[in-house]
Design brief:
Elements (H helix, E strand, L loop, with lengths): L9 E4 L11 H12 L7 H5 L6 H10 L1 H11 L5 H19 L9 H10 L3 E5 L4 H13 L6 E3 L12 H10 L7 E5 L2 H10 L2 E5 L10 H6 L2 H17 L4 E3 L5 H13 L10
Parallel strand pairs: 1-2, 1-4, 2-3, 4-5, 5-6
Helix pairs in contact: 1-5, 3-5, 5-7
Length: about 280
Amino acid sequence: MSEPFQYLKAVVFDWAGTTIDHGCMAPAIVFQEIFRQRGVTITAKQAREPMGMAKRDHIAAIAAMPDVASAWQSQHGTTCDDDQIDAMYADFLPLQKATLADHSRMISGAADVVEWCRGRGLKIGSSTGYTRELMEVVTAAAATQGYIADCVLCSEDAPKGRPAPFLLFEAARRMGVYPMWHVVKVDDTPVGIEAGRNAGCWTIGITRTGNCVGLTEADLADLSPAERQQRIDEAAATLRTAGAHYVIETVADMRPVLEEIESRIAAGEYPNSAGS
């Protein structure tokens, strides 16, 4: 077995699109449904754009998009106000919970990477825009597949969700890890990467399995090699723009990246002064 890392102490993983639910399908489906129920059609791209935020914030962000706001005005004769957003959020929660059992399969290689990280002495944290009630479904399903995080933080565990850094600060507190440059944040959304940078963590963006590509494993395989690579390249560009220090296709590719981060810290580099 390899020696424990000397500098790195923890990895904080996102959930949907990073460790479970290839393509981050579950939330996108439900966001489209709650707007459809109110006579407003939103695209998958619109549903996915704010992904990573706390879910009420996510609904508000969709409603504020110019095309969506215009469609809402045409349908309802008024703007989408806080009461309407609260009502959609109330509908979102049970619909999302009902879909999670079918969208909690671990992404290939994720459980193995987590065990490798533990073998190198790293603690395993996690954060999500899901509520605690929703995560009870997800964590139970993940446990049957060999993944149990040391720390699971949900949208209600911090005063403000991503891209604010507070969930990461809370994860570090609960795991007893500091300073924040000992922590690596792994996420498939721009706001998740921004949260990692805002917290002073190293950041790794995930493309192929994540929200920026937004396809199931089967749908991705159906694309031509050129189309598939284009989707992955576009996702990588989005995550790099958000500030990712590294971009990989899947968490299964993490091992050499963590080794490199350990070497960079040993050489005196820190995440908010280091180049990507």
